[in-house]
Amino acid sequence: MPKTDYAIETRDLTKSFKGFTAVDGVSLHVERGTIHALIGPNGAGKSTMFNLITKFLEPTSGSIHLDGVDITGEKPAQIARRGAIRSFQISSVFPHLTLLENIRVALQRRMHNSYHFWKPESDLDVLNDDARAILADVGLEGSEKSLASELPYGRKRLLELATTLAMDPKVLMLDEPMAGMGTGDVARVAEIIRRVAKGRTVLMVEHNLNVVADLSDRITVLQLGAVLAEGTYDEVSNNREVRSAYMGEVYG
């Protein structure tokens, strides 16, 4: 494997849709073991960039590298098997399974038998203790027998984060993890991200600037599909172009 300090790297990544360029030559460098935030005003290209990196969209040009390996031609499932696991803006848990069952589905990756659906359910009981521990990590202990469909929105997002963590990602990719959450849940998720980031790389799209300021080691700001600025929170928050584009400030 090529030696690199970057867990994720894109080179001149571009995506066009029938003449509209949503991502325009973006070269992104996410250092291993850091929390890197991708921010920008609505329409900046953040979600498109996220979908390109995880190959839910095919790039028009440019390349994507994970731990120094060119993954531009790979499918989402291959990238997940490499350890880059993503969440989605819209909750994507199994609504008619219990919380414990949702976590056990994700934990099957460790058993290398995810496709052995003909085996008896009792074979998965060996995963119960790990599943309960993960639920406790995100504050969902005591609810293991509840159906996912019965959870309020904020706790459903916590369950989705738990299923993502159950897959033991090397690179954790979070698409607006705080969207729609109340203040208490935001604080809980921020603390969980800080804790699980130890020993991992995290790339997140997030609109809550307080969360970005608190968690991020480095920030990339997009505008109109291109990189406007990059640096620490203090560096980008004091950048005039960023303040104009993202916060609406006007300079003479």
Task: Report the structural category.
Answer: alpha/beta
Structural domain tally: 2
Major β-sheet annotation: 6 strands, mixed
Q: What is the strand content?
A: 15-25%
Number of strands: 11
Overall average residue pLDDT: 85
Query: Low-confidence parts lasting 5 or more residues at pLDDT below 50?
Result: none
Oligomerization status of the protein chains: single chain
The 3D shape can be described as: globular
**Briefly, what CATH class of the largest domain?**
Alpha Beta
And the CATH topology of the largest domain?
Rossmann fold
C-alpha end-to-end distance: 50 Å
Strand order of the largest sheet: 7-8-9-4-10-11
The helix-strand sequence is: EEEEHEEHEHHHEHEHEEHH
- What is the helix fraction of residues, given as a range? 25-40%
CATH architecture classification of the largest domain: 3-Layer(aba) Sandwich
CATH superfamily of the largest domain: P-loop containing nucleotide triphosphate hydrolases
Could you characterize what this model shows?
The protein is an alpha/beta fold. The protein has 2 domains: 1-83 and 169-252, P-loop containing nucleotide triphosphate hydrolases (Rossmann fold, 3-Layer(aba) Sandwich), CATH 3.40.50; 98-168, no CATH class. Helices cover 34% and strands 24% of the residues. The chain contains 9 helices and 11 strands. It has helices spanning 46-53, 76-81, 99-111, 128-137, 153-166, 183-196, 209-215, 233-237, 240-247, and strands spanning 6-17, 20-26, 29-31, 35-39, 61-66, 69-70, 84-86, 171-175, 201-205, 218-223, 226-231. The chain has a 6-stranded mixed β-sheet, with helices on both faces. Helix 6 links the parallel strand 8 (171-175) and strand 9. Helix 3 packs across helix 4. The chain starts with 5 loop residues before the first strand and ends in a 5-residue tail after the last helix. The relative contact order is 0.18. The mean pLDDT is 85.
